[in-house]
From TrEMBL, chain B:
<protein>
    <submittedName>
        <fullName>CheC domain protein</fullName>
    </submittedName>
</protein>
<feature type="domain" description="CheC-like protein">
    <location>
        <begin position="110"/>
        <end position="144"/>
    </location>
</feature>
<dbReference type="InterPro" id="IPR028976">
    <property type="entry name" value="CheC-like_sf"/>
</dbReference>
<dbReference type="GO" id="GO:0016787">
    <property type="term" value="F:hydrolase activity"/>
</dbReference>
<keyword id="KW-0145">Chemotaxis</keyword>
<dbReference type="Pfam" id="PF04509">
    <property type="entry name" value="CheC"/>
</dbReference>
<keyword id="KW-0378">Hydrolase</keyword>
<dbReference type="GO" id="GO:0006935">
    <property type="term" value="P:chemotaxis"/>
</dbReference>
<dbReference type="InterPro" id="IPR007597">
    <property type="entry name" value="CheC"/>
</dbReference>
<feature type="domain" description="CheC-like protein">
    <location>
        <begin position="12"/>
        <end position="46"/>
    </location>
</feature>
<dbReference type="InterPro" id="IPR050992">
    <property type="entry name" value="CheZ_family_phosphatases"/>
</dbReference>
C-alpha cells in the first residue's frame, strides 16, 4: 500500500518506496527533492527562506534551506540512503505578483532558488532537474518508487522531472 | 518564544479587532455600493496562526483562488490581501461587467482590471478607517492580481513574516452577498514591527 505523505510549508519529510511525498501550493517557496535511486529513499523539503542566520527567529529549522537540508539528509541516511548516490531536483521560487517596481521583498522566490543552488553545491549534491521561477504556483509530488518529481500547476499543466 | 505576537494581551487583541471591524465595515459599504447588493460581513476574526496553517483559512493550500495584493506604505508597512474563491471571483466579474451569471469561466485583461479595482477600493476604504483611528498616514500601492493556488499566493506574505517568527497575526473578515453567496476574505497582515506602531498609535502598547 503506497502512502501519500504530506509535507507542509516550512516542513520536510523523508520516506521510502512505495510511498510518495507531496507538498501543495508552492509559490515563492522552494520544494527540494532529494533521492537515492538505488535505495529508493527520498526526502522533500518545503523551505520558505534561504538562510537562518539572516532571520530574527530561527526556531523552526525546517523553514530555512541551510538548516532543513542537513537534517533531512541525516534522516535519509538513517533510513539507508547513501550520500554519494543522492541527487536533487528543485521546483518553485515563483514571483506570484508582478509590480512595476519590484523590490527585494517581491523577488524572494528568485533569492530562495539562488540560495538553494549554492547550498546544494556546497553540500556536494548535484541538481539534475529543475522547474523554477515564473509567476504561478506548483504542487509537487516525489514518487519514491521511481524518483519522478511531478510538478502540477493550474495554468501550465503537469510536468515530470 | 520569540514571536512578539504571542505576547499580545486581551485588550490589545480587542483593540485590533475593533480596528478591523471599522475598516471592514467601510470596505463592505464600498463593495455594496459598487455591485448594488446587500453585503453581510462577519465580525473580524483575529487569529494567531502557525504560518503553515494560514492557507487553511481559505480552503487549503491547493484551493483555487483569486488574490488581489497591495502593499501598505507609511509608518506601519503592511500587506493587504483580498482573496476570493475562483467561483466567487467569476461571479463578481459577471456582476461588475453586466454579464449573465455563469458567463465568465476565465479572466480576460478587462476582468482582471475590474477585480484589481475592487481590491483597490476595498483597501482604500479599509486604510481610510485605519488611518483615522491611528492618525497614521497609510497609503496603498497599486494592486496586483494572481489567480492560483491559495498556498502559493499566501506564500508571498508568509515568507515576509517567516523572517521574524513562526506565527502570523491575521485580521480576517469574510464578506458574503445576501442572495448569491459571493464570498471574499480580506486580510490585513502587518509587517513585523508595524504591529507595535499601530498598538502605540491607539494607546494600548502595554
Amino acid at each position: 500500500m503506497s502512502e501519500l505523505i504530506k509535507v507542509g510549508m516550512a516542513d520536510y519529510k523523508v520516506g521510502s518506496n512505495p510511498s510518495s511525498l507531496i507538498s501543495y501550493g508552492l509559490g515563492s517557496c522552494v520544494g527540494i527533492a532529494l533521492y537515492d535511486t538505488a535505495a529508493k529513499i527520498g526526502g522533500l523539503a518545503h523551505i520558505m527562506l534561504p538562510d537562518s542566520t539572516q532571520a530574527r527567529s530561527a526556531e523552526n529549522p525546517a523553514k530555512f534551506a541551510n538548516t532543513a537540508l542537513p537534517l533531512m539528509l541525516d534522516e535519509m541516511i538513517k533510513l539507508g540512503a547513501a550520500k554519494k548516490r543522492i541527487l536533487a531536483k528543485i521546483a518553485g521560487g515563483a514571483q506570484m505578483f508582478t509590480f512595476a517596481n519590484a523590490t527585494d521583498v517581491m523577488r524572494v522566490g528568485e533569492r530562495n532558488t539562488e540560495a538553494v543552488r549554492i547550498l546544494l553545491k556546497k553540500m556536494d549534491i548535484k541538481i539534475i532537474a529543475d522547474d523554477t521561477g515564473g509567476n504561478y504556483g506548483r504542487t509537487v509530488v516525489l514518487h519514491l518508487d521511481t524518483g519522478i518529481y511531478l510538478i502540477k500547476t493550474i495554468a501550465k499543466g503537469e510536468k515530470e522531472l | 518564544m520569540s514571536d512578539e505576537i504571542l505576547k499580545l494581551s486581551m485588550l490589545q487583541l480587542d483593540a485590533l479587532r475593533e480596528i478591523g471591524n471599522v475598516g471592514a465595515g467601510n470596505s463592505a459599504t464600498a463593495l455594496s455600493q459598487i455591485i448594488n447588493r446587500k453585503i453581510d460581513m462577519t465580525v473580524p476574526k483575529i487569529a494567531i496562526l502557525p504560518l503553515g496553517e494560514v492557507p487553511d483559512v481559505v480552503g487549503g493550500p491547493d484551493a483555487m483562488v483569486a488574490g488581489v495584493y497591495l502593499r501598505v506604505f507609511g509608518p506601519a508597512p503592511s500587506s493587504i490581501l483580498f482573496l476570493l474563491p475562483r467561483d466567487s471571483a467569476f461571479y463578481l466579474v459577471d456582476m461588475l461587467m453586466g454579464r449573465e451569471q455563469g458567463h465568465t469561466t476565465s479572466l480576460n485583461s478587462m476582468d482582471e482590471s475590474a477585480l484589481m479595482e475592487i481590491g483597490n477600493i476595498l483597501a482604500g476604504a479599509y486604510l481610510n478607517a485605519l488611518s483615522h483611528f491611528t492618525s497614521l498616514t497609510l497609503l496603498p500601492s497599486i494592486p496586483a492580481l494572481a489567480m492560483d493556488m491559495a498556498g502559493a499566493i499566501l506564500s508571498v506574505i508568509l515568507i515576509q513574516l517567516g523572517q521574524m517568527g513562526d506565527h502570523a497575526l491575521v485580521i480576517e473578515t469574510e464578506f458574503t452577498t445576501e442572495s448569491d453567496g459571493v464570498k471574499g476574505h480580506f486580510f490585513l497582515i502587518p509587517d513585523p514591527g508595524s504591529l507595535n506602531t499601530i498598538l502605540a498609535a491607539i494607546g494600548v502598547k502595554e
